[in-house]
Amino acid sequence: MPAHCCVPKCTKKLYRTENGKKISYFKFPDDVNLKKRWLHAIRRDECKDFTVNQNTKICSRHFKPEDFVKSVGGQRIYVREGVVPSRFSWSQSSPLKRKPPKKRMFTSNTDTELIVSQTTSATETNGDNCTSSAAGSSADHDVQNDMDTQGNTTEDFKELLEKLKSLELENASLKAEIGVLKRQKGLADSRVFQLRNFTSDEDIAFYTGFPNFATFNAVYEFLNTGTNGENIRYSYYARQL
Protein backbone atom coordinates (compact mmCIF):
# COMPACT_ATOMS: atom_id res chain seq x y z
CA MET A 1 0.00 0.00 0.00
CA PRO A 2 1.68 3.24 -1.08
CA ALA A 3 2.00 6.00 1.48
CA HIS A 4 0.35 9.36 0.96
CA CYS A 5 0.82 12.78 2.56
CA CYS A 6 -1.84 14.05 4.97
CA VAL A 7 -0.98 17.74 4.56
CA PRO A 8 -3.86 19.72 3.01
CA LYS A 9 -3.38 20.60 -0.68
CA CYS A 10 -0.61 17.97 -0.96
CA THR A 11 -1.62 15.08 -3.22
CA LYS A 12 1.65 13.14 -3.25
CA LYS A 13 1.20 9.37 -3.13
CA LEU A 14 4.32 8.18 -4.95
CA TYR A 15 7.94 7.89 -3.91
CA ARG A 16 9.36 10.04 -6.71
CA THR A 17 8.71 13.58 -7.88
CA GLU A 18 8.16 14.59 -11.50
CA ASN A 19 11.90 15.21 -11.72
CA GLY A 20 12.75 11.78 -10.35
CA LYS A 21 13.73 13.03 -6.89
CA LYS A 22 13.03 10.58 -4.08
CA ILE A 23 10.22 11.35 -1.65
CA SER A 24 10.15 9.93 1.88
CA TYR A 25 7.21 9.71 4.26
CA PHE A 26 7.43 10.17 8.04
CA LYS A 27 5.04 9.16 10.80
CA PHE A 28 3.93 11.55 13.52
CA PRO A 29 6.18 11.60 16.61
CA ASP A 30 5.20 9.70 19.75
CA ASP A 31 5.79 12.75 21.95
CA VAL A 32 2.38 14.32 22.67
CA ASN A 33 3.57 17.96 22.65
CA LEU A 34 5.60 17.52 19.46
CA LYS A 35 2.65 15.77 17.83
CA LYS A 36 0.43 18.76 18.65
CA ARG A 37 3.01 21.08 17.10
CA TRP A 38 2.97 19.00 13.88
CA LEU A 39 -0.84 19.17 13.75
CA HIS A 40 -0.77 22.92 14.33
CA ALA A 41 1.85 23.35 11.57
CA ILE A 42 -0.23 21.47 8.97
CA ARG A 43 -3.42 23.25 10.12
CA ARG A 44 -5.36 20.12 11.06
CA ASP A 45 -7.06 18.82 14.20
CA GLU A 46 -7.94 15.28 15.16
CA CYS A 47 -11.64 14.57 14.81
CA LYS A 48 -13.94 11.79 13.65
CA ASP A 49 -12.88 12.39 10.04
CA PHE A 50 -9.14 12.61 10.74
CA THR A 51 -7.24 10.53 13.28
CA VAL A 52 -3.46 10.18 13.54
CA ASN A 53 -2.32 6.54 13.40
CA GLN A 54 0.60 4.50 12.10
CA ASN A 55 -0.44 5.15 8.49
CA THR A 56 -0.76 8.93 8.89
CA LYS A 57 2.38 10.42 7.38
CA ILE A 58 3.91 13.65 6.06
CA CYS A 59 6.13 13.66 2.99
CA SER A 60 9.67 15.02 2.90
CA ARG A 61 8.67 17.97 0.72
CA HIS A 62 7.37 19.77 3.83
CA PHE A 63 10.72 19.72 5.64
CA LYS A 64 13.89 21.70 5.10
CA PRO A 65 17.08 19.89 3.99
CA GLU A 66 18.72 20.59 7.34
CA ASP A 67 15.79 18.91 9.15
CA PHE A 68 17.02 15.45 8.11
CA VAL A 69 19.73 13.12 9.34
CA LYS A 70 20.97 10.13 7.36
CA SER A 71 21.43 6.62 8.63
CA VAL A 72 24.90 5.08 9.03
CA GLY A 73 24.83 3.60 5.54
CA GLY A 74 23.26 6.71 4.08
CA GLN A 75 20.40 4.74 2.54
CA ARG A 76 17.62 6.11 4.77
CA ILE A 77 16.87 9.52 6.21
CA TYR A 78 15.17 10.43 9.45
CA VAL A 79 13.67 13.63 10.83
CA ARG A 80 15.85 15.23 13.50
CA GLU A 81 14.50 15.20 17.03
CA GLY A 82 12.25 18.16 17.82
CA VAL A 83 11.89 19.28 14.17
CA VAL A 84 8.49 20.57 12.97
CA PRO A 85 7.44 20.64 9.26
CA SER A 86 7.51 24.19 7.90
CA ARG A 87 7.28 24.12 4.08
CA PHE A 88 3.71 24.42 2.82
CA SER A 89 1.92 25.92 -0.14
CA TRP A 90 0.32 28.63 2.03
CA SER A 91 3.65 29.74 3.49
CA GLN A 92 5.69 29.99 0.30
CA SER A 93 3.69 32.55 -1.65
CA SER A 94 5.15 36.04 -1.86
CA PRO A 95 3.79 39.24 -3.45
CA LEU A 96 5.02 40.06 -6.92
CA LYS A 97 7.53 42.86 -7.13
CA ARG A 98 6.38 45.97 -8.89
CA LYS A 99 8.18 46.92 -12.06
CA PRO A 100 10.07 50.23 -11.96
CA PRO A 101 8.40 53.10 -13.85
CA LYS A 102 9.58 53.86 -17.37
CA LYS A 103 11.58 56.96 -18.05
CA ARG A 104 9.55 59.68 -19.75
CA MET A 105 10.97 61.92 -22.42
CA PHE A 106 9.94 65.58 -22.34
CA THR A 107 9.42 67.11 -25.76
CA SER A 108 8.61 70.69 -24.86
CA ASN A 109 8.73 73.27 -22.10
CA THR A 110 4.93 73.06 -21.80
CA ASP A 111 5.11 69.38 -20.93
CA THR A 112 7.86 70.10 -18.41
CA GLU A 113 5.84 72.84 -16.70
CA LEU A 114 2.78 70.56 -16.59
CA ILE A 115 4.74 67.71 -14.97
CA VAL A 116 6.31 70.07 -12.43
CA SER A 117 2.90 71.53 -11.58
CA GLN A 118 1.37 68.08 -11.10
CA THR A 119 4.32 66.96 -8.97
CA THR A 120 4.09 70.08 -6.76
CA SER A 121 0.34 69.63 -6.29
CA ALA A 122 0.77 65.96 -5.43
CA THR A 123 3.53 66.81 -2.96
CA GLU A 124 1.41 69.41 -1.19
CA THR A 125 -1.53 67.00 -1.02
CA ASN A 126 0.69 64.24 0.34
CA GLY A 127 2.13 66.68 2.83
CA ASP A 128 -1.34 67.56 4.11
CA ASN A 129 -2.27 63.89 4.27
CA CYS A 130 0.95 63.08 6.10
CA THR A 131 0.25 65.89 8.57
CA SER A 132 -3.30 64.67 9.18
CA SER A 133 -2.12 61.09 9.39
CA ALA A 134 0.64 62.07 11.79
CA ALA A 135 -1.83 64.02 13.95
CA GLY A 136 -4.26 61.08 13.93
CA SER A 137 -1.47 58.66 14.69
CA SER A 138 -0.28 60.87 17.54
CA ALA A 139 -3.82 61.05 18.99
CA ASP A 140 -4.25 57.30 18.67
CA HIS A 141 -0.88 56.82 20.29
CA ASP A 142 -1.88 59.08 23.21
CA VAL A 143 -5.17 57.19 23.68
CA GLN A 144 -3.31 53.89 23.55
CA ASN A 145 -0.79 55.19 26.10
CA ASP A 146 -3.64 56.27 28.39
CA MET A 147 -5.27 52.84 28.07
CA ASP A 148 -1.97 51.12 28.72
CA THR A 149 -1.35 53.38 31.74
CA GLN A 150 -4.80 52.63 33.15
CA GLY A 151 -4.29 48.94 32.53
CA ASN A 152 -0.88 49.02 34.21
CA THR A 153 -2.34 51.00 37.15
CA THR A 154 -5.11 48.45 37.60
CA GLU A 155 -2.64 45.57 37.47
CA ASP A 156 -0.34 47.35 39.95
CA PHE A 157 -3.29 47.95 42.29
CA LYS A 158 -4.30 44.29 42.14
CA GLU A 159 -0.71 43.26 42.79
CA LEU A 160 -0.52 45.58 45.83
CA LEU A 161 -3.78 44.16 47.20
CA GLU A 162 -2.43 40.63 46.87
CA LYS A 163 0.78 41.64 48.65
CA LEU A 164 -1.23 43.36 51.42
CA LYS A 165 -3.34 40.25 51.96
CA SER A 166 -0.21 38.13 52.06
CA LEU A 167 1.41 40.45 54.62
CA GLU A 168 -1.73 40.44 56.79
CA LEU A 169 -1.77 36.64 56.83
CA GLU A 170 1.92 36.56 57.64
CA ASN A 171 1.42 39.10 60.47
CA ALA A 172 -1.42 37.06 61.98
CA SER A 173 0.71 33.92 61.79
CA LEU A 174 3.63 35.66 63.52
CA LYS A 175 1.37 36.99 66.29
CA ALA A 176 0.03 33.51 66.93
CA GLU A 177 3.58 32.14 67.03
CA ILE A 178 4.64 34.86 69.51
CA GLY A 179 1.71 33.97 71.75
CA VAL A 180 2.73 30.31 71.74
CA LEU A 181 6.35 31.20 72.53
CA LYS A 182 5.27 33.44 75.44
CA ARG A 183 3.19 30.66 76.94
CA GLN A 184 6.06 28.21 76.55
CA LYS A 185 8.47 30.66 78.19
CA GLY A 186 6.09 31.26 81.10
CA LEU A 187 5.72 27.51 81.59
CA ALA A 188 9.49 27.02 81.48
CA ASP A 189 10.12 29.87 83.96
CA SER A 190 7.60 28.42 86.40
CA ARG A 191 9.58 25.19 86.51
CA VAL A 192 12.96 26.84 87.19
CA PHE A 193 14.17 26.80 90.83
CA GLN A 194 14.42 30.55 91.54
CA LEU A 195 13.55 32.88 94.40
CA ARG A 196 10.67 34.67 92.70
CA ASN A 197 8.78 31.38 92.47
CA PHE A 198 8.57 31.24 96.30
CA THR A 199 5.46 33.18 97.24
CA SER A 200 5.03 32.35 100.93
CA ASP A 201 7.05 32.01 104.13
CA GLU A 202 6.20 28.30 104.18
CA ASP A 203 7.99 27.87 100.84
CA ILE A 204 11.02 29.80 102.14
CA ALA A 205 11.12 27.68 105.30
CA PHE A 206 10.73 24.45 103.34
CA TYR A 207 13.39 25.14 100.69
CA THR A 208 15.95 27.31 102.59
CA GLY A 209 15.48 26.59 106.33
CA PHE A 210 14.94 30.27 107.17
CA PRO A 211 11.79 31.04 109.14
CA ASN A 212 10.47 33.62 106.65
CA PHE A 213 11.30 35.65 103.58
CA ALA A 214 12.45 38.72 105.53
CA THR A 215 15.14 36.74 107.37
CA PHE A 216 16.28 35.08 104.16
CA ASN A 217 16.48 38.43 102.37
CA ALA A 218 18.48 40.04 105.23
CA VAL A 219 21.05 37.23 105.17
CA TYR A 220 21.22 37.40 101.38
CA GLU A 221 21.88 41.15 101.41
CA PHE A 222 24.54 40.74 104.13
CA LEU A 223 26.39 38.08 102.16
CA ASN A 224 26.01 39.86 98.79
CA THR A 225 29.51 40.56 97.42
CA GLY A 226 28.32 43.03 94.81
CA THR A 227 28.49 42.85 91.04
CA ASN A 228 32.24 43.44 90.91
CA GLY A 229 33.10 42.45 94.52
CA GLU A 230 32.75 46.02 95.79
CA ASN A 231 31.17 44.85 99.09
CA ILE A 232 34.20 42.80 100.12
CA ARG A 233 36.55 44.37 102.73
CA TYR A 234 40.14 43.13 102.63
CA SER A 235 42.55 43.15 105.65
CA TYR A 236 46.31 42.90 105.52
CA TYR A 237 48.47 41.78 108.47
CA ALA A 238 52.19 42.21 108.58
CA ARG A 239 53.93 39.03 109.43
CA GLN A 240 56.13 39.46 112.46
CA LEU A 241 59.46 37.66 112.35
Give a quick precis of the structure.
This protein is 46% helix and 5% strand.
Low-confidence stretches are: 130-135
Mean pLDDT: 77
Category from helices, strands and their pairing: mainly alpha
Mind summarizing the main beta sheet? 2 strands, antiparallel
Termini separation comes to 133 Å
Query: How much of the residues is beta strand, in percent?
Result: under 5%
Tally of helical segments: 4
- The helix-strand sequence is EHEEEHHH
Kindly state the number of beta strands.
Answer: 4
Cα Rg? 48 Å
**Cα shape:** elongated
Query: Main sheet: which strands, in order across?
Result: 1-2
As a percent range, the share of helical residues equals: 40-55%
Structure write-up:
The protein is mainly alpha-helical. The chain has four helices and four strands, in the order βαβββααα. The strands form two sheets. It has a two-stranded antiparallel ribbon.
Write the layout of secondary structure elements.
Blueprint: E1 25-27, H1 32-41, E2 57-59, E3 68-70, E4 77-79, H2 109-191, H3 201-208, H4 213-223
Antiparallel strand pairs: 1-2, 3-4
Considering the chains and any ligands shown, give keywords for the structure.
4 helices, mainly alpha, 4 strands, two-stranded antiparallel sheet, 241 residues
